[in-house]
């Protein structure tokens, strides 16, 4: 998102390095207000029901028509755990208890941090929502591995099942690199 | 930070709930642009040198004159580990290797997520900077516990030393509540 006008006074912006700073920022030519752009936090979870996990088929871009885990932007005033449970409710109508941290991803090329939790569905109630055309429980072998919306979700699921196979869960921080250009 | 003018077209803003959303947002009355405000990520570390840790005395508000661990806002395009090392360099002139995650804090009342890492100084070189009047190594008993700038830093240090005493480090997510009003 480019900042063309100052949100404080409506003035025109210029790019520059403020005094004492070492990054280029959008600075207002009129009132001097500095606009900082920082990474956003995405929170989500792996909702478990017995040996199955709950996934949703996206009804919105990006990744429309592909499968994902419930996840979305953390809101102001919200804990990460509350945000992950809220996104799960919004995208799947499923209620979860967040049981622990699973993976934290740096995704620097899109200015995002992804925090994925392990979670347990509190009942077998779930279903489609404005954001998801299908919401479905999958055993590991049933997961549509070739039709997953985001590489960070693919990685989360692979790690989750390999730890589950090993019989112990851990927490790790990983970095997703920008995909190589085609051609 | 209140959004008074649209950063896209300079138009006046109104508060409202966009279609398909359930949160109040700042919406442009002229071009319809929606401005989202999301939590910011602060990254920092506990720089270790033998049995001592490196702290800095703040030269800027908030908490000017009080002691803290090096930490600051994660920048776009940066991993959390790189951000923590950069902040350490900027605030203490010390170079660190990030060795692992220590604590992740929800601080919902100030719309922040704090990620604190364990780290090791790569040399004994450090010193004051524009952001820190003093930079100093402390053994646990020497830490100015009553003069620490932020409760999240106090908690990080308490947890770190209690785990060190136990002989094993873990990772945990915690939530800092708003302080009770005085009086």
UniProtKB/TrEMBL annotation, chains A, B:
A Pfam family the protein falls into: Zn_ribbon_Nudix
Top-rank taxon, per record: Bacteria
Segment forming the signal sequence: none
Residues in Nudix hydrolase domain copies: 38-161
PROSITE patterns noted in UniProt: NUDIX
InterPro entries from the UniProt entry: NUDIX_hydrolase-like_dom_sf, NUDIX_hydrolase_dom, Nudix_N
Matches recorded under PANTHER family: NUDIX HYDROLASE 23 (PTHR43222), NUDIX HYDROLASE 23, CHLOROPLASTIC (PTHR43222:SF2)
Name of the protein in its database record: ADP-ribose pyrophosphatase YjhB, NUDIX family
Source organism (scientific name): Desulfocicer vacuolatum DSM 3385
């Amino acid at each position: 998102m480019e900042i063309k006008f100052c949100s404080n006074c409506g003035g025109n912006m210029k790019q520059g390095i403020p005094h004492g700073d070492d990054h280029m920022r959008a600075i207002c030519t009129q009132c001097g207000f500095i606009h900082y752009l920082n990474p956003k936090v995405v929170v989500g979870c792996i909702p478990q029901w017995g040996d199955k996990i709950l996934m949703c088929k996206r009804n919105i871009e990006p990744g429309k028509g592909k499968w994902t885990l419930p996840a979305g932007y953390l809101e102001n005033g919200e804990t990460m755990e509350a945000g992950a449970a809220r996104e799960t409710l919004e995208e799947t109508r499923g209620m979860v208890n967040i049981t622990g941290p699973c993976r934290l991803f740096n995704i620097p090329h899109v200015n995002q941090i992804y925090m994925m939790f392990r979670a347990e569905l509190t009942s077998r109630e779930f279903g489609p929502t404005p954001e998801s055309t299908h919401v479905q429980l999958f055993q590991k072998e049933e997961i549509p591995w070739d039709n997953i919306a985001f590489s960070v979700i693919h990685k989360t699921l692979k790690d989750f099942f390999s730890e589950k196979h090993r019989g112990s869960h851990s927490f790790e921080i990983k970095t997703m690199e920008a995909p190589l250009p085609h051609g």
